[in-house]
Amino acid sequence: KNLDINGKLNISLKDIYQGNEKLFEYSRNNLCLSCSGLGTLNSQNIIICNSCQGSGSILKSNSLFPGFITQSKSICSKCNGKGTIFKFGTECSTCLGQGIHKVKINKKIIIDKGINETHKIVIDNAGNQNSKGESGNLILSLEIDPDENFIKKGNHLILEKTITLQEALTNSLLEFNFINNQKYQFKCNDIIYPNKVLIIKGFGLPVYNNSSNGDLIIKFQIKFPQKLSDKKKIALKKILPNSENEIVEENMIKSVISISEEQNKQVNNYLNSNLNEEKKKNSESPNPVECRTM
User: Fold this and answer.
1) Helices (DSSP H) in the chain: which residue ranges?
2) CB contact burial 35-45 (16+ within 10 A = b; e otherwise)
């Protein structure tokens, strides 16, 4: 019988970044110390099973029709295949004659830096025990908890950062909270436009059993002001470059509706879902028939 215990251990990006120790609580079968696995306090209380005569199995004969007999062997239900039983009333009160009993364990688990969801942590002899004192292993699969700020991509970290339009245009000092609870600042000398990406080398997660790190990839979103006064609009027109093509007012549309930010999100979700459905339909459509004229 397999004595191994399989479990799942949840870890955070911070655990992967700097390593950690965690307590893992689980239940396992332990050798009964009261009877040393015998199931009774005295070995003289163990006797031969009178149902199977010590063989651990019962032989049954079945007559299908006259002159034709079949035999089948089954495990003895009285001794459960052991061939021995206890004298009446002599079973160990701790394990009830099983030789093992359930115990709760709090095991200290060491999380190495750079470990990831493809690894398994194996603790030798921390699994179930049988009445002979043999032990299995504790085998833990890893599951990484989602982080509210960072996304893991291999050993790289992705941070989506929203900044103001002023910060995007004016080479402002920018700041972020890292997974080690430290605050870091940086500057970008270029204009930052929506979805612009900056890469900070070596600022990602450690590579397992290696001295190198992945990168931190920062993807920017720009928060535009909801309203501007006429005075500010005029000032911006003076500062910002003009359009390359001058537009002449000719066929003006009057009924243009500006919706709220929340409504804008809903419309985008609707459009994206329809776009995905159209792509799926196109991929599933049969090949077009080729028509030729003679």
Assistant:
1) 13-18, 165-169, 230-239, 261-284
2) bebbbbeeeeb
The CA-CA-CA angle for residues 7, 10, 15, to 5°, reads: 130
Q: How much is the pTM?
A: 0.71
Residue 45 three-state SS: helix
The secondary structure of the chain in percent helix, strand, coil, rounded to multiples of 5, reads: 15, 35, 50
d(CA 157, CA 218): 8
CB 104 within 8 A of CB 27: yes
Residue type, 94: T
Backbone CA torsion sign across 134, 103, 9, 178: negative
Length reported for the chain:
294
Per-residue pLDDT of 95-142, as tens digits, reads 999 999 999 999 999 999 999 999 999 999 999 999 888 999 999 999
